[in-house]
Every structure is written in structure tokens, then in C-alpha cells.
């Protein structure tokens, strides 16, 4: 088992593997590109610059110091649960449909 997931992508549109690790209460190390800055809050993981090797090494050290299991990571991932996403999309579509009827 792993305590930390490190995904040092230079291009990351979303980061599903990061969310899956966070849902399993694991801290993550990700880069400040694409999706991860939107869902990796402080305490759930560490964000680093994508081309800075020293920052990546420091991020791994900092993530290793986070609690295991990491409840903050799980809470952050829960915001992106499939049901919650479906509810948000449904609300947007219903709002758009109401607007067209007016």
C-alpha cells in the first residue's frame, strides 16, 4: 500500500487518479497545471511547479508528513463524487430549461 500518490504531470486536464487516491484517504503530490489546483486543497496534498525537481522532492517530503489516513483528502474528493457531480449538472440543466421557457 502507498501513503502518498505522486502524479508530477506537465499536462493534466483533470486528474482522476489523484481523486481516487484522495477518496482512499491518501495524500497526493500534483503539479499546478490543469485540474489538480481546483481540487487539491492544503492538507489534502501538495501542489508543486511541474518542472522544478527540487520542489517535487520537497513536496514528497511534505506530503509524507501529512496524516495517514488523510481525512482532509477524503473530504476534498467527496466534493467530486459522481452523485454530487450529477446533481450539479442536473441543477444547471434545469435552470437552463426554466430560462428557455420564460
Explain this structure to me?
By secondary structure, the chain is of the alpha/beta class. It has a single domain (4-101), classed as Rossmann fold (3-Layer(aba) Sandwich). The chain contains 5 helices and 3 strands. It has helices at 16-23, 36-39, 53-64, 71-78, 82-101, and strands spanning 4-7, 27-31, 45-48. The chain has a 3-stranded parallel beta sheet with strand order 1-2-3, with helices on both faces. Strand 1, helix 1 and strand 2 form a beta-alpha-beta unit. Helix 1 (16-23) crosses helix 4. The mean pLDDT is 94.
Quick structural overview:
The protein has 102 residues and is α/β, with parallel strands linked by helices. Helices cover 51% and strands 13% of the residues.
What share of residues is helical? 40-55%
Integer count of domains = 1
CATH architectural grouping: 3-Layer(aba) Sandwich
pLDDT under 50 segments (min length 5)? none
**Overall body shape:** elongated
| Rg over C-alpha atoms, rounded to the nearest angstrom | 16 Å
| Average of pLDDT | 94
Structural class: alpha/beta
Give me the count of strands: 3
Name of the top-level CATH class: Alpha Beta
Largest sheet: 3 strands, parallel
* Individual helix count: 5
Instruction: Name the CATH superfamily assignment.
Output: Glycogen Phosphorylase B
What's the end-to-end separation, in Å?
55 Å
CATH topology type: Rossmann fold
Q: How do the helices and strands follow one another from N- to C-terminus? A: EHEHEHHH
Strand content: 5-15%
Q: Strands of the largest sheet, in order across it?
A: 1-2-3
Amino acid at each position: 500500500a502507498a501513503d502518498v500518490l505522486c502524479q508530477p504531470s506537465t499536462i493534466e486536464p483533470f486528474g482522476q487518479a489523484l481523486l481516487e487516491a484522495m477518496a482512499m484517504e491518501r495524500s497526493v503530490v500534483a503539479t499546478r497545471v490543469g485540474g489538480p489546483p481546483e481540487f487539491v486543497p492544503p492538507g489534502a496534498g501538495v501542489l508543486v511547479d511541474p518542472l522544478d525537481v527540487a520542489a517535487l522532492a520537497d513536496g514528497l517530503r511534505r506530503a509524507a508528513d501529512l496524516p495517514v489516513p488523510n481525512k482532509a483528502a477524503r473530504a476534498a474528493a467527496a466534493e467530486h463524487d459522481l452523485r454530487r457531480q450529477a446533481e450539479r449538472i442536473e441543477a444547471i440543466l434545469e435552470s437552463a430549461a426554466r430560462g428557455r421557457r420564460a
